[in-house]
Amino acid sequence: MNRLTVKNLLGIKQLTEQDINLIFKTADNFIKIINKPIKKVPTLRDITIANLFFENSTRTKLSFELAEKRLSSDIINFSSSTSSLQKGESLIDTVNNIIAMKVDMVVIRHPNAGASDFIAKNVNSVVINAGDGSHEHPTQALLDAYSIRNKLGLVENKNILIVGDVLHSRVALSNIFCLQKLGATVKVCGPSTLIPRHIHTLGVEHIADLKDGLEWCDVVNILRIQLERQNVKYIPTLREYSMYYGVNREILNSINKKIVIMHPGPINRGIEVSSDVVDSKQSIVLDQVENGVAIRMAVLYLLASKIQK
């Protein structure tokens, strides 16, 4: 099968294992292209893509833009801070006005969970979720799993530990869905105040002690504390959090194996992870960035085939 089973990418939950493997196979081809002297292909030359970012973003926005340019699509960039939303215009009116300009695909990031689903139900364009509140971030999960596959050969039967602010993380939820579909075992680690109460219903165990978690896992994916999403205090201080849950060289040296270090960014060095760990040979953080462009190229390419011209 060379086609995705979905028209839109709203979350990992809607994808099959076959969908994920097709995205990975397609990304393998694009990795070769982006490492050539001429990095551009005319694949989406007749496709217009609108990047609608209602929330701040650096890596995801740049990664999508670069992926779109590599595929030769026409791009419209939208920023809510300079739009008519500031004058009281509704989300659906804003999107419909953009769609009326004959936009084929919409990449949307929004602070509210379910925003991409809402847009997909109200427009005819292909919709890609670039992060909706604390819900899902599907392309981040895909590039994380793809990076693990490239590093270790397989995702199946690997032990993956997600450390940090799982409660507010859309990356964590998408990673759990994606990694489990590919046959990995996922556990989470962090203070109980930052772990969803019903995490066990997803087949995920909470490990309270960081060293125990690191000794169990093959890969640790480190999340930052998302203070911008917290309306109450979940931890006493960042310093205390770092003492108990910060991944540093000392704790890595105390375990009996070399594990793979990941971080979706942005990185708060010295809090959730130390600089010498981020910059070490165990880290694949920069591989994640490079793979992000290839994965997003693959997603755009595969979903563009759903567009009737």
Characterization of the model:
With 309 residues, the chain is an alpha/beta fold. It has two domains: 12-136 and 289-304, Rossmann fold (3-Layer(aba) Sandwich); 138-288, Rossmann fold, CATH 3.40.50. The protein is 38% helix and 15% strand. It contains eleven helices and nine strands. The protein has helices at 17-34, 59-70, 91-99, 115-122, 138-152, 170-181, 210-216, 238-245, 249-253, 275-278, 285-304; strands spanning 48-53, 74-79, 105-110, 126-132, 159-163, 185-189, 205-207, 219-222, 260-262. Strands 7-6-5-8-9 form a five-stranded parallel β-sheet. Strand 5 (159-163), helix 6 and strand 6 form a beta-alpha-beta unit. Helix 2 crosses helix 11 (285-304) and helix 5 packs across helix 11. The protein starts with 16 loop residues before the first helix and ends in a 5-residue tail after the last helix. The relative contact order is 0.16. The model has no long low-confidence stretch (mean pLDDT 91).
Which terms would index this structure?
globular; 309 residues; 11 helices; 9 strands; Rossmann fold; alpha/beta
